[in-house]
């Protein structure tokens, strides 16, 4: 199970008024896991993603410009919670299955 490495340091990078936070994970993560994490973050309207590096994965989040303390804490809590959700998420259906579902839906629309 993937977890945040609370014993390691985080990185905070400022670019003008916007902060990007890099949160260390306790182990490497696969590219598939990174893809699942990004998909979950998009569904939450977060600018967050995961990266895999040798010996460690990272979760990266861009904080909204001008976010106050409660907004920042809520966003970082969600970013943290998505780590567990990415472990539990299943891969999306293959493109052939999606195509069949869309075609069947379209056939119903046409009567």
If you had to describe this structure to a student in words, what would you say it looks like?
This protein has a single domain (11-109), classed as TATA-Binding Protein, CATH 3.30.310. It has three helices and four strands, in the order ββαββαα. The chain has helices at residues 31-43, 69-88, 95-109; strands spanning 11-15, 18-24, 48-53, 56-62. The chain has a four-stranded antiparallel beta sheet with strand order 1-2-4-3. β3 and β4 form a beta hairpin. The radius of gyration is 17 Å and the shape is globular.
Produce a short descriptive summary.
Helix content is 43%, strand content 23%.
Jot down its keywords.
43% helix; TATA-Binding Protein; 3 helices; single chain; globular; 111 residues; 23% strand; 4-stranded antiparallel beta sheet; alpha+beta
Topology:
Elements: E1 11-15, E2 18-24, H1 31-43, E3 48-53, E4 56-62, H2 69-88, H3 95-109
Antiparallel strand pairs: 1-2, 2-4, 3-4
Helix pairs in contact: 1-2
Number of strands: 4
Radius of gyration: 17 Å
Q: Could you name the CATH topology?
A: TATA-Binding Protein
Q: What is the CA-CA span between the terminal residues?
A: 47 Å
CATH architectural arrangement: 2-Layer Sandwich
Domain count: 1
Beta fraction of the residues? Answer: 15-25%
Helix and strand element order: EEHEEHH
Number of helices: 3
Name the average pLDDT.
Answer: 91
Low-confidence stretches: none
Structural class: alpha+beta
Instruction: Determine and state the CATH class.
Output: Alpha Beta
